[in-house]
C-alpha cells in the first residue's frame, strides 16, 4: 500500500474511531461513498445533497413512504385559476433559531432558488411570480398552466429570509465558481434534525429537533454521517458494527453483507437513469484530436458511440446483474415510461465502424471522457468499460476519473466534451427529465442539466405542451412523441437504471425509497 493510501486509510479509521467514541444510545452512524458538497439546499441538484439537506430543511410539499405527495410546510393547495396556485402554510412552525416561518420565507426562498448561482432553476423556470397574500398564504403564478407544480415544489427547500440576510447568504453557494458563504457550512431549517457539527468530507453530526412541529416516527436522537470512499473499508465498517447504515454496497459484496451476523442488505430498484452526454454545441470540442469541427454534431458519430457500447457486458461484468439496461432517460415507475419505447439500438461493432467511416472518421479519433468515481454505482468501472468498447471501433478515450467534489463543478460549467450523469426525476414524471436534460438551454433554467447543449425546437414545443396539458391521455402521447424525437436524434447515450443496495445493521429499521433519499425521521435503532 502506498504512503497516500496509508494516510487515507488512517484518516478513515480516525473518523470511525471518533464515531465509535461518541456514539451512544439512539445514535445512528451512517457511511456513504461521498459527502454532501454543501449544506446550502439550493447549491447542487444532486440526490445525496438533497437527501441530506431535506433532513434539516423542508419544502412546501413532500413525500410519503409510498412516494405519494404529502403536505409539509404547506397544509393545502389549490388552483385559483389555470396559472395561479394558492398554498396555505402551516401555522406555528419555527426555524431552528426560533424565528417563525411565514410567507416571506417562501417568497424569498423561491426567488433565491431561481436566482444567480442556484442549481435548482429547472424547478423554478416556469414560475412567473410568487406573491404573499398574508403571513400564512402565498400565490404562485406560472407562465402557463402547470398541473404538476405541487410535485415540482417537493424539491425546493424553504430557508429563513432573516437568517440568510443576517449571514450574507441571500444568494446560493455557487460550486461552479468556487463561491462559498455561511449557508455552505451552517444550516437553519424547519426540519426534524438540526446540524450540530459540520466537517466537510470528514463527518457531519445531526441532532433531533426538540421543537419540531410534527411527529418524528423514529427514535434516532443523533445521526453521525461519515463519508468513506473506499468500498472495502465501508463494508468492513458495517459488518464489524462500526457503522449502522451504509450505501452503496458494492454489488460484489451484497452476499457477504447478508451472510454477516450483524447486518443485512436492503435492495430494490432505483428510479435513477445513468447516461452519457456529448458536447453538441461547440464548433470544436475542448478535449479531442479533431480540430476545426465537432464530431458529436454528426448524428452518425453519436449513433456509432451508442452501438459500440456493450451494455449487456457492462450489466454482466461490471454491475453483476444489478442494473436494468435502458433506451430511455426514464425507467419504470416514472409517468410517461413505456416498455414499447424502452428499446436500445443493437450493440453492433461493425455497424459502429461503418457509421464512423461514413462520418469521415474511418480511423476514429481521440476524446476525453469525464467520470466520477464516488457518485454512482461502479461509475468509474462503467466508464472504463465504455472506453474499452469504444477502442474496438477506433476511438481512443482519455479517461478523466475524479471525486464528485471536483467532477460536478467541472461538468456543470460545461468544461467537458463527453461525460457521465445520473438522473432521478424528482416529480416521478417524464416532464422533469425532458425539461432538465433535453430542453434547449436558456438562462431561465430550462435545460439546466443538458450539459451537452442538445437542442431540437420540436421537442421543446412538446415539453411545453406536456407541462400544461391536463388531459392524461393527450399528455402521455406528447411524452411518447418527445422521447421518440430524442431517441431518433441520439441526443444522449442511455445506459441503465442502477439498483439500490443499502447495508443496514440488524438493530436498525428504516425506509428505503426508490429515489434513494434517506430520511432520518423514519429511522429507529434497538439498544
Task: Report what the structure shows.
Strands 1, 10, 11, 12, 13, 14, 15, 18 and 19 form a nine-stranded mixed β-sheet that branches. Strands 5-6-8-7 form a four-stranded antiparallel β-sheet, covered by helices on one side. Helix 15 (430-438) runs parallel beside helix 17 (472-489) and helix 16 packs antiparallel against helix 17 (472-489). The protein has 17 helices and 21 strands. It has helices spanning 3-22, 47-53, 103-114, 121-124, 149-152, 161-166, 182-185, 231-239, 254-259, 299-308, 311-318, 349-358, 379-391, 404-412, 430-438, 457-468, 472-489, and strands spanning 27-32, 58-59, 61-63, 69-71, 74-81, 84-89, 127-134, 137-142, 157-158, 193-199, 203-208, 222-227, 245-247, 263-278, 323-325, 366-372, 396-402, 418-423, 493-505, 508-509, 524-525. The longest helix is centred in the N-terminal third of the chain and has 20 residues, at 3-22. The protein is an alpha+beta fold and 527 residues long. Mean pLDDT is 93; it is low at 1-13 and 18-23.
Amino acid at each position: 500500500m502506498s504512503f497516500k493510501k496509508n494516510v487515507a486509510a488512517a484518516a478513515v479509521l480516525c473518523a470511525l474511531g471518533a464515531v465509535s467514541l461518541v456514539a451512544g444510545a439512539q445514535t445512528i452512524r451512517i457511511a456513504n461513498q461521498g459527502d454532501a458538497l454543501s449544506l446550502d439546499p439550493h447549491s447542487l441538484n444532486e440526490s445525496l445533497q438533497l437527501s441530506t439537506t431535506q433532513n434539516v430543511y423542508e419544502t412546501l410539499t413532500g413525500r410519503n413512504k409510498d412516494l405519494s405527495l404529502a403536505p409539509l410546510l404547506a397544509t393545502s393547495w389549490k388552483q385559483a385559476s389555470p396559472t395561479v396556485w394558492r398554498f396555505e402554510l402551516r401555522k406555528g412552525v419555527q426555524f431552528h433559531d426560533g424565528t417563525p416561518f411565514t410567507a416571506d420565507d417562501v417568497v424569498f426562498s423561491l426567488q433565491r432558488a431561481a436566482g444567480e448561482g442556484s442549481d435548482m432553476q429547472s424547478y423554478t423556470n416556469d414560475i412567473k411570480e410568487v406573491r404573499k397574500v398574508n403571513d400564512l398564504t402565498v400565490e404562485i403564478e406560472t407562465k402557463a398552466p402547470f398541473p404538476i407544480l405541487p410535485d415540482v415544489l417537493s424539491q425546493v427547500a424553504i430557508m429563513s429570509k432573516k437568517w440568510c440576510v443576517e449571514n450574507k447568504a441571500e444568494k446560493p453557494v455557487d460550486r461552479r465558481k468556487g463561491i462559498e458563504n455561511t449557508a455552505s457550512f451552517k444550516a437553519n431549517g424547519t426540519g426534524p434534525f438540526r446540524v450540530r457539527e459540520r466537517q466537510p468530507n470528514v463527518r457531519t453530526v445531526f441532532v433531533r429537533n426538540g421543537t419540531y412541529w410534527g411527529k418524528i416516527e423514529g427514535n434516532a436522537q443523533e445521526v453521525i454521517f461519515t463519508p468513506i470512499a473506499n468500498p472495502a473499508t465501508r463494508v468492513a465498517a458495517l459488518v464489524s458494527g462500526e457503522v449502522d447504515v451504509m450505501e452503496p454496497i458494492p454489488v460484489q459484496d451484497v452476499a457477504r453483507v447478508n451472510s454477516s451476523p450483524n447486518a443485512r442488505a436492503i435492495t430494490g430498484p432505483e428510479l435513477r437513469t445513468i447516461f452519457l452526454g456529448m458536447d453538441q454545441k461547440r464548433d470544436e470540442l475542448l478535449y479531442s484530436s479533431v480540430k476545426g469541427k465537432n464530431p458529436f454534431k454528426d448524428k452518425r458519430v453519436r449513433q456509432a458511440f451508442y452501438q459500440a457500447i456493450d451494455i449487456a457486458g457492462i450489466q454482466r461484468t461490471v454491475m453483476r446483474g444489478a442494473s436494468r439496461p435502458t433506451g430511455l432517460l426514464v425507467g419504470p415507475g416514472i409517468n410517461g415510461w413505456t416498455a414499447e419505447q424502452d428499446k436500445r439500438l443493437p450493440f453492433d461493432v461493425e455497424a459502429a465502424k461503418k457509421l464512423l467511416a461514413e462520418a469521415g472518421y474511418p480511423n476514429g479519433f481521440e476524446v476525453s471522457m469525464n467520470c466520477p468515481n464516488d457518485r454512482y454505482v461502479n461509475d468509474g468501472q462503467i466508464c472504463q468499460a465504455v472506453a474499452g468498447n469504444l477502442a474496438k471501433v477506433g476511438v481512443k478515450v482519455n479517461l478523466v476519473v475524479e471525486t464528485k467534489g471536483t467532477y460536478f463543478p467541472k461538468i456543470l460549467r460545461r468544461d467537458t466534451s463527453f461525460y457521465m450523469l445520473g438522473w432521478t426525476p424528482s416529480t416521478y414524471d417524464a416532464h422533469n427529465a425532458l425539461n432538465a436534460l433535453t430542453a434547449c438551454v436558456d438562462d431561465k433554467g430550462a435545460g439546466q442539466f443538458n450539459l451537452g447543449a442538445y437542442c431540437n425546437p420540436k421537442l421543446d414545443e412538446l415539453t411545453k405542451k406536456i407541462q400544461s396539458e391536463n388531459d392524461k391521455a393527450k399528455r402521455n402521447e406528447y411524452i411518447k412523441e418527445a422521447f421518440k424525437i430524442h431517441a431518433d436524434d441520439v441526443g444522449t447515450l442511455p445506459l441503465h437504471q442502477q439498483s439500490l443496495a443499502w447495508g443496514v445493521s440488524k438493530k436498525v429499521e428504516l425506509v428505503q425509497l426508490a429515489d434513494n433519499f434517506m430520511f432520518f425521521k423514519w429511522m429507529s435503532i434497538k439498544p
